[in-house]
Design goal:
2 copies of one chain form a homodimer.
Chain A: H1 14-21, H2 28-35, E1 40-44, E2 49-51, E3 59-65, E4 68-73, E5 79-85, E6 90-91, H3 93-98, E7 104-107, E8 111-117, H4 118-127, H5 129-155, H6 158-175, E9 183-185, H7 190-197, H8 201-213, E10 217-219, E11 224-227, H9 230-236
Antiparallel strand pairs in A: 1-8, 2-7, 3-6, 3-8, 4-5, 4-7, 9-11, 10-11
Helix pairs in contact in A: 4-5, 6-8, 6-9, 7-8
Chain A binds a DNA duplex (30 and 30 nucleotides) through α8.
DNA sequence: CGGGAGGTTGACAATCGTCAATCAGAGTGG
DNA sequence: CCACTCTGATTGACGATTGTCAACCTCCCG
């Protein structure tokens, strides 16, 4: 189901470029090379799968609009969400470079993505070292978030876990240039939050209500989160943004 | 505390080469370039830190002998181990490329490592695309293991979690060419196992004894694990090696 | 022989899960 | 406009996996 709106093809990858520029210094030629990448546009419905576990993924995928998640299913049938992705992020570099997918990627909301063939990713990464370094660092930051999530799920109680996640979202949305970090739309059901934090939806519900009762957050619409007291929420969530690596020291390839 | 045994300098990185060759095809020039990397040898005592959280890491580190772990400390003071590393593995590419360490790396046993400067890693990665791809894929496999650990800690019960970890060790040791995968030395205390699985040492103790009572494993020496029934252990541990990406499909850079 | 680290065990506590009912809101067709 | 339906949120009662505390044991090593 390829999209028709390919008119502004040159600027369509701007969210990606914006993101990669936070990872490494790019020059005009780098940006041009990214814009020139062959790609297929794809419109995605809510719940659409981008890749399924055990698929052979041939494409990487840049989220242009909408949110997606990576998840795994364990033997009991329970699900664990291992990552959430926002516009501008590259989903599935992992699965595509690794050959066989070790997890599924599925849309949380409707959206739009650009598919880029694995070979083209490899080519640009090694033809243009700045881009390659940015991509590499991006995957390393992903990995850093995975590590934090292991600690979150392994060593924090429910309240702390959820507060931590809410803080992470807030910051990452800000980073992605998506709206007010203290008042955002969280495109997840409580069951999905449960699958993210290793809890049950019932317990997530109780915990969120307790955060709300303590005025750390407010909920207006169905899924909109207003952070009432960022400092207290961050403290409750044992949140320290270091692991997001918001500023690197040595971005330039020498 | 640099080591003195630098005589066989050419072959000392063989464990690394061996490992990278499972990630991407290397030619003679690639191997020679790896062997020619400037490095500092370092002897490490048990419990020595290689990097501490928040340090500015300037070096990556190839484990040549011994085991190490990555860990994080949460607000309550509890610790979460997020990875275990074996000889041949590259520790701390992450921290070194990312600038500021988001976690600590510490020796589980005494050992020996080669330190390679960040800039030299970057250089070889982009001068020799095969090596670069192998390094990149290696970090992606690390990330895949992180994802599995999130699922392990988030969605499996204690018995399954521990069985899973024991299976993972077994396979990774075999991969690294270290002894019999059904009869190996696990260089961790039960408290460290607890910090790995998000449990307490007391519960780890009980769970291990229960696995032993069911003849899934046997313990001979202080930390030697004998897998009595691999099939049953893997089943109990909900273990599927897919996430280790033992064979890639497209290893050659085109 | 003494000290220390790590392993083992029991009694009890608590965080979190299970089950199940009810409620709220959005979309749909008549 | 109003039943109807479906998904998701909310709540209560109860259960259980896992944690806490504390004692004791075992082995290694100086």
């Amino acid at each position: 189901m390829p999209d028709t709106h390919e008119s502004d093809r040159g600027s369509i990858l701007n969210p990606l470029i914006r993101r990669l520029e936070t990872r490494a210094m790019l020059d005009d030629a780098d940006r041009a090379a990214i814009r020139a990448l062959p790609m297929k546009m794809r419109a995605l419905e809510q719940h659409n799968y981008i890749v399924r576990e055990r698929d052979r993924a041939e494409f990487s995928c840049v989220m242009l609009r909408g949110f997606s998640m990576r998840h795994k299913v364990v033997g009991t049938g329970d699900r664990q969400i291992v990552a959430i992705h926002m516009p501008g992020e590259i989903v599935d570099l992992q699965n595509s470079l690794l050959g066989v997918a070790d997890h599924s990627v599925q849309m949380l909301t409707a959206g739009r993505a650009a598919l880029i063939a694995r070979e083209d990713i490899k080519r640009i990464a090694f033809d243009r070292p700045n881009v390659g370094l940015a991509l590499w660092i991006d995957t390393l930051v992903d990995a850093s978030i995975f590590r934090e999530w292991i600690a979150n799920v392994g060593r924090r109680d429910a309240r702390t876990r959820i507060a931590h996640l809410l803080c992470e979202f807030s910051l990452r949305l800000k980073l992605a240039g998506l709206g007010d970090p203290t008042n955002y739309e969280l495109p997840m059901t409580q069951e999905q939050l449960a699958d993210t934090t290793g809890l049950t939806s019932v317990h997530v519900n109780r915990t969120i209500k307790s955060l709300e009762a303590d005025k750390l957050i407010e909920r207006i619409g169905p899924r909109s989160i207003v952070i009432g007291d960022w400092r207290k929420l961050a403290e409750t969530g044992d949140f320290d943004s270091n692991y997001l690596h918001l500023q690197q020291s040595e971005l330039v390839l020498q």
